[in-house]
Q: What sequence folds into this?
């Protein structure tokens, strides 16, 4: 995710994909033009990266030149007219290939056709790296198209937002929803996730979703979901992924306007972590960090047995079930540390001490994010 001026943008098209697309376009143009020496005409400013990469890949001799859009005041003082300038070379009888970074409404293309009307070129071909079919309002033929994209604002690879972003080697898309802060509170059963989440949600004005709590409230209400979950929870096993993922998605949807979420007890498997990434992506957002409370197993068992005396939770009352929950954690959940480490999002916090001490440690980590 990047911020340019006041707006946030998310990664959209990678350098690798752009490179492969340009290679394909070069191959198409070269196959069509054979031994003819074309004049490639870039439309500044946006096309400078595309033209540079395109002609470097072009396998045969070619000429390269540029034209540039300049704004003039129109007949009415409120109206700006865009004109292309810089076409100084005689192009009579030449095959001209226009290299555009992006074609959306087609207004620039109309201007290109206007200035080439009297140039007596042999052929005028149009090649564009990006094309927005939904926005295109003209009938001019586009001979070579790189990638069709939705009608959303993009920056990078020559394209700017108010002057910034042209230098980025990949393309980013404007985020349409507000910026959210989301983190996963991680750790084995009894690490103190629920306790700490209650403080953190107040401090950062976030919505706290504990999948364990949602299951327990379903059990209390005797819903079908609750009955299904109970059979697993009573043994200290995990509820199946798809059931849990569907429930989590519904909980997030219920809080559409949230500033962000603290996920507690979710994800617990690789499949859940992937589903959470996908859900965040659909919301134009992401998981900012996994914050893990690190506590020794024997401390966990003692804590959970202690909690079992008052919590009324059947899975806290029996040491065998507690140990099974911890085993499930190491078997299925602990691997998620690597998942988030690979994304540079893992932050470990010592989870032993008194409650307010641990809250302070967490706040220190979160404030640095
Ligand atoms: P917790 O309150 O987080 O300790 O969760 C209590 C129990 O609910 C777990 O032992 C599981 O049976 C079930 N559960 C909670 N979250 C999940 C999850 N993300 N995936 C599967 N099962 C879960």
A:
């Amino acid at each position: 995710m990047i911020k340019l001026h006041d707006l946030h943008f998310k990664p959209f098209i990678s350098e690798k994909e752009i490179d492969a697309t340009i290679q394909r376009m070069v191959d198409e143009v070269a196959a069509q033009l054979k031994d003819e020496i074309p004049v490639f005409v870039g439309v500044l400013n946006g096309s400078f990266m595309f033209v540079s990469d395109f002609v470097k890949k072009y396998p045969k001799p070619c000429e390269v030149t540029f034209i540039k859009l300049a704004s003039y005041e129109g007949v009415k003082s409120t109206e700006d007219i865009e004109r292309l300038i810089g076409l100084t070379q005689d192009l009579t009888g030449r095959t001209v290939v226009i290299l555009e970074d992006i074609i959306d409404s087609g207004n620039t293309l109309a201007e290109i056709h206007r200035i080439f009307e009297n140039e007596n070129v042999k052929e005028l071909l149009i090649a564009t790296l990006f094309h927005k079919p939904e926005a295109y309002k003209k009938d001019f033929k586009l001979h070579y198209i790189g990638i069709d994209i939705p009608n959303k604002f993009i920056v990078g690879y020559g394209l700017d937002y108010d002057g910034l972003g042209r230098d980025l080697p990949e393309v980013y898309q404007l985020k349409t929803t507000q910026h959210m802060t989301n983190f996963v509170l991680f750790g084995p059963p009894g690490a103190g996730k629920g306790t700490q989440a209650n403080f953190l949600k107040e401090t950062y004005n976030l919505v706290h979703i504990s999948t364990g709590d949602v299951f327990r409230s379903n059990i209390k209400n005797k819903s079908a979901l609750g009955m299904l979950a109970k059979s697993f929870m009573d043994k200290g096993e995990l509820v199946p992924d798809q059931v849990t993922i569907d429930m989590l998605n519904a909980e997030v949807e219920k809080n559409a306007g949230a500033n962000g979420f603290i996920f507690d007890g979710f994800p617990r498997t690789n499949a859940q972590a992937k589903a959470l990434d996908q859900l965040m992506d659909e919301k134009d957002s992401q998981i900012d960090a996994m914050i893990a409370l690190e506590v020794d197993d024997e401390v966990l068992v003692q804590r959970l047995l202690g909690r079992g005396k008052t919590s009324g939770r059947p899975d806290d009352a029996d040491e065998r079930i507690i140990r099974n929950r911890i085993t499930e954690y190491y078997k299925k959940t602990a691997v998620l540390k690597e998942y988030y480490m690979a994304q540079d999002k893992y932050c470990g916090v010592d989870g032993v001490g008194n409650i307010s001490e641990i809250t302070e440690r967490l706040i220190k980590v979160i404030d640095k994010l």
